[in-house]
Amino acid sequence: MMDRRTAEESFFKTLMYLSIIIVVGSLFLVFAIVIMKGIGALNIAMVTQVPHGGYYLGREGGILNAIIGSVYLSTGAIIFASVISLPTAWYLQNYSERSNYATLVRSMLDVAAGIPSLIYGAFIFLVMIMVHARASLLWGIITVGVFLVPLLTRAIDEIMQMVPAKLKEASLSLGASRLETIFHVVTRQALPGIITAVLVAFGRGIGDAASVLFTAGYTDSIPTSLNDPVATLPLAIFFQLGTPFPQVQQRAYASGIILLIIVFVICIGSRYLSKKFTKYVIK
Amino acid sequence: MTETEIRISNFSISIDQRQVLKNITVDIPKNQITAIIGPSGCGKSTLLRSMNRLIDLHENVRTEGMILIHDQNVLDPAIDLSNLRKKVGMIAQAPNPLPMSIYDNVVYGLRIHGQGDHGTMDKRAEECLKKVGLWNEVHDRLKEPASRLSLGQQQRLCLARALAVEPEILLCDETTSALDPISAKHIENELTGLKNDYSILFVTHILRQAKRLADYVIFLYLGELVEHGPAHEVFTNPKDPRTKAYFEGVFG
Fold this sequence. Notes:
The complex is a heterodimer. Chain A has helices at 4-38, 44-48, 64-95, 100-114, 117-130, 137-161, 165-172, 178-207, 233-241, 246-276. By secondary structure, chain A is mostly helical. Chain B is α/β, with parallel strands linked by helices. Helix content of chain B is 37%, strand content 27%. Chain B contains 10 helices and 10 strands. In chain B, the strands form 2 sheets. In chain B, strands 6-7-8-3-9-10 form a 6-stranded mixed beta sheet, with helices on both faces. In chain B, strands 2-1-4-5 form a 4-stranded antiparallel beta sheet, covered by helices on one side. The relative contact order of chain B is 0.18. Chains A and B meet through helix 7 and helix 8 of A and helix 2, helix 3 and helix 6 of B.
């Protein structure tokens, strides 16, 4: 007969295996379906040409406009978000130990991180109406940037909180101020994690369609200035899927493959980069 | 008669409404090794951390009395902490190298205190690493991460880092307890060699170590100062029955 401990153990083991199968399995299914449905439409023209006339009716062309647009937009957005998030995280670190205010800011950021990106898009759209602005790369960057700030800030904040207290004490006991300690020791120790957080946020930004639905516009050409409207891959997928033509729908899946590849490359890059910066980290 | 480096008078401290030290009054001699001994939880570390105000990291700290270093009350809220901690160096229980190279670790304090020109830093780094007997082991790999050193080397690096800002007082919080016996011996030797130039406070709960190192002894028990005096007197002829009991291994 099985005793209680053995039974418990096999129960939780089964639970673990089931969960991991669901997680890995569904991920695999998504990849498999996107690739199976899209691989036939994937060709070199897709990544080298912009849509020609009638592209959405099944004519020639590619989605280079959306690929470049997405890269421009997410790069701008991640720079915008980092410039705001890092100082905010520093602020939270500087006051974290003894301030209810920091706790309040943290919970507000957590709430903000849970708001759907569409709401951010709608909000920025209202601002645009107020200042009579038109949809453009710049406003797309602002939208995605604002949407990424809470996510990125809390990620960096959590990583910095994991820096061991003994490192901070070492710096303080040499006469460094709290801020100096945060700049020279905490940030340095947390750097690999910060890089990962930034690149994960980049991935979130490039994959988000809803936030830029109203604010970035959509165009068949590659933007040449911040004031031009810009196409993004997720929106390209959305529009292509929305047509009644099967071959255009198939191109949507092919675009999905391209998006997957970009995100995959970012993941690998983040692994590589953060490894590079672990040299001096104290384990 | 020896000079006094630190004058502690009627010092009490409570953290989170819990009284940790009660009414401590003692003079700590200059350029000697003073061992603070006592069983775990008697307030040794808190006393040490009061002297460089690392207690500020806790919330709800209340202090009474004074800790005077050169006639300046360390507990004064208006004191320049950066300056105080430059004068009063600390070496922690476990080695805590900073996430940077060996060289950058040693000169970290210099950079903080605006003495970061290359000539000074190179000279001071070599000087301090020699003082702790680490120069020969690391001089050809100063740019390597400090984390690659062994634990014993890391602790000597921390000592060198503390020395680099030219403190007058060194606070050692069970500085050898995380090390193997040989590395511990190494640190003890360095400290003995340093005592002519620095006033060293050494917290330990290892009696034999206190006997080896100390010129002056402070015995704390449950937050109270039980006995203090020159090491040979306290060790050979303890006056208080609690000190006697502690030495005989009745508790602690």
